[in-house]
Structures are given as structure tokens and as C-alpha cells.
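Bench log. Compound arrived from synthesis this morning; before running ITC I wanted a structural hypothesis for how nicotinamide-adenine-dinucleotide sits in the protein. Inputs:
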Amino acid sequence: MADVEERDGDDDGAGAVSRLRDAFDDGVTRPLPWRADQLRAVARMLTEGSTLLERALYEDLGKPAAEAQVTEIRVAVAEATHALRHLRRWMRPRRRRLPPVLWPARGWVVREPLGVVLIISPWNYPVQLSLVPLVGAVASGNAVVLKPSELAPATSSAVAGLVRRFMDPRAVAVVEGGPEAASHLLEERFDHIFFTGSTRTARIVAESAAKRLTPVTLELGGKSPVWVDRTVRLQPAADRIAWGKFVNAGQTCVAPDYVLATPDVADALIPALGRSIRRFFGDDAAISPDYGRILNHGHHDRLVGLLDGASVVIGGRHDRASRYLEPTVVDDVTTADALMSEEIFGPILPIVRVPDAGAAIEVVRSGPKPLTLYVFSDDRDVLRAFAHRTSSGALGVNVPLAHLAAPELPFGGVGASGTGRYHGEDSIRTFSHERAILSKPLVPDTVRMVYPPYGRLADFV
Ligand code: NAD
């Protein structure tokens, strides 16, 4: 595809917000045909801009083209197509039953757009995490300012160009830039802020939103644990864990962060993980076309630092110049180690040996509520124990990451891993106001029963 043309005038936050507010107030975004057009535009921009986006993702993250398609571009296309298919049904007013005391009357719930919404997205899946929220926001009839991450500059610029070329400029704007641009945007009035990123930045965003009582959705991260036990076949389990961990070089919010296993399972799982890694990336992942790179030198240094004094049993090689870090497994990690103190967000998989599932549950419970918990087990009691005694944004049984690709499942965190949810109809719930309507005929006037003076009413209460 030829490079997209740049259009002037979109990059000034305040100007964009005021233009969008006018469009919203004029009712531009409310009609269903407008929303459907915008959804078709998202699907078209992703298809026609596919090669441009693949190239940008490779430049920013060394993301292989196939991975870019499966984990970013097609996820966003599927979301737009799903929304287009269900939009009319989702927007239908819903009748609600009313208590007899209010009869005769009718009640409905109507989904209305919120207004002008701000979407702030991170660098790790810079296409998907910008455009999937955008789909929900325009499907709900909002005007949208999108602020992509400056840390994936090629993708930020490609997404900005495509949005400007394909979407309605009256109601959809992209403001590029880093913390400074974001801070300026936060000074504007929005009707909702949808933020994906780190807990640290989320605090700044939430604090700023609180000043105006602007509602927020916070899609954050954390340490997503994995439990594996002897009731499952270990090689396919290892394949799935290794895929979920090492896709995008471990820079995935729902990546398995660490494994909890009994010593006998850990002993068998480690060689199985080694086989999975070799099968995926060959003997030297550095020359594999299917393995990504770490975002920048700062993150690379942080990850290499986490390996200091660690018991590396697979991988561990790294090269700062090319931001390469081999798929790495570390054994005998304890909850006191640095590897367990923060979200790893890179291709390092710690194994924490525990005596049994009960002890694993205690490890999970001792930390903040994770974005996802993965349980590889066919033991119903174990599954039930994890389900009932822990809390997490989602629970993946025998498979990592897959829940993200199901538009019918809500995606979001709980507690420190986030607040609010989206994807499919849950995006509509997030980006709409559910307005209650009650309509009652004036005749017969049953309300009269509660008018003062209360003489007769007092006999009934
Ligand atoms: P980040 O918080 O550094 O940045 C996210 C966005 O916030 C960027 O667009 C950035 O420019 C912007 N930002 C930076 N400073 C800001 C400020 N002062 N005010 C407002 N906005 C500001 O996060 P990141 O490093 O891009 O992403 C990594 C984190 O995101 C990880 O913790 C990961 O787990 C999490 N994450 C969560 C999800 C999810 O869906 N829950 C998905 C991907 C990543």
C-alpha cells in the first residue's frame, strides 16, 4: 500500500477535542448508519493497511508478520465485524418488568452514547489495543480521541495515518505523543477515559479523571500465574505455556508470568518446555524469523538484571545491541526473589516449586489479583479450589491467551489488574450509558394514592 497521506490539524489535543464535541453535540455520531460506516472503515483500514501495519510492528517490536496478523490485525478485524453484525440488536431498547404498584406503566433501558471518549493505548500490541477499544467506542456512537503509545513510534504513526484516511475526521481523531501529550489531553473534559497500560500511569490517569468525576476503564497488567499438575499431559501443556509466554517475546499483558508446580511436575515440565522452545524457534532463537525483540534498551537491561544470580535452566543468552533475550526458564524461584516482585513482561519464565495445589493457591492469594490465572489440570477438585479461592480478571483452563480472542467473553482485570471490561457487547456496556425510561399514563392516576395528606395512606403502611 502506498504511504498514507497526512492530514493537518489533528495533532492538537484541545483543538481535536473541541471539534469532536461539536460533532457529537450536532448528533453526527448517533445514527446507526454512521456507526456501521465507521466499523466498516476500521475493517477496511486494517485490510488495506495490513502490509503497512506489519512493517511498522516489525520495526517497533521485531514482530513476525504472521504474529502481527494473528495477535493484532485479525483480532481487530474480527472485533469490528462482530460489532457490525450485532450492532442493531445491541442497540435495541430493552423492556423491563415493573412492580404492580407502578401499573399501568412501561419501562425500558436505552443505550446512549457517552460523548467524547479518550482511549490511551500501550506499545506491546499497539494495533489491537488501539483499535479494539475504538471499535467499541464508535459502535456505541461516541466521538473518539485515540492516543497511541510513543514507544511504538512506527505503529503509532501508521495507525494515525490510517485512522485519518479512513475514518470520519469530524468525530475520530488521533493525538500522537508521550506523557506530555497525554497530560495535556487529560486537562480536557472527556465523558469516559479508556486506559490500557501500567499501574503506575493508571494512578495518574485515575487521579486526573477523579477531579472531573470522569468514569474510567483501566486495563492493567500484573503477574498471571500458571498451575500445572500431573493430571494433564505435560508436553502439550508445555507447548501452550511456551507459546503464551514467548509470543511477542513475553511482552503480553496476559502472558503466563510464572509457573507453580510440585517438584516432580517441575522436573518433567522443564525438559518439555525446552522441547517446545526448540520446536518453535530452533536451536538458536536469535536467528529465528518467528521470535520478536524487546522494546528498548531500558526494558532489556531491566530483564537481564532480573537474571542476576538466578538459576537459569533454559536459555539466558542476550544481546543488548539487537535487544535480544533468549526464551528463558529459571528454576527454584521463591516468592522472595526479584523475579516474583514485579510483572516480568519479557521472555523469562520462573518456576516456583510448591508442595501442592493448596500452597499454590496461597501464593496466588498473597499477591494482587492477577489479570488472568491459568490452571492446567483435569482434576475437578483442583479446578474448583482455584476457581473459588482465588480471584482474577479471567481464568484460563488448559490454555493461555485464547479468551482474548472471544468477543463474547468480557476482557478486563479485577483489583490491581484493572477495572471495567470490554470486547463485543461488553464494549458497548463500557462506552454507553444505560438510561432508564419509565412512562406512565396520566389516567388512571394511581399516583394519587401517595399524595398528601397521608390520612388514608397511613392506614395501609
Ligand atoms: P504505560 O503506562 O507506560 O503507557 C501506556 C500509555 O500511557 C501510553 O500511551 C503512554 O504514552 C501513556 N502515558 C504515559 N505517561 C502518561 C501520563 N503521565 N498520563 C497519561 N498517559 C500517560 O504502559 P506501557 O509500558 O505502554 O504498557 C505496559 C503495561 O501495560 C504493562 O503493565 C502491561 O501489563 C499493561 N498492559 C495491559 C493490557 C490489558 O489489556 N490489560 C494490555 C497490554 C498491556
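What the model suggests: The domain at 13-220+418-434 is CATH 3.40.605.10 (Aldehyde Dehydrogenase; Chain A, domain 1). The chain is about 40% helix and 20% strand.
ITC booked for Thursday regardless.
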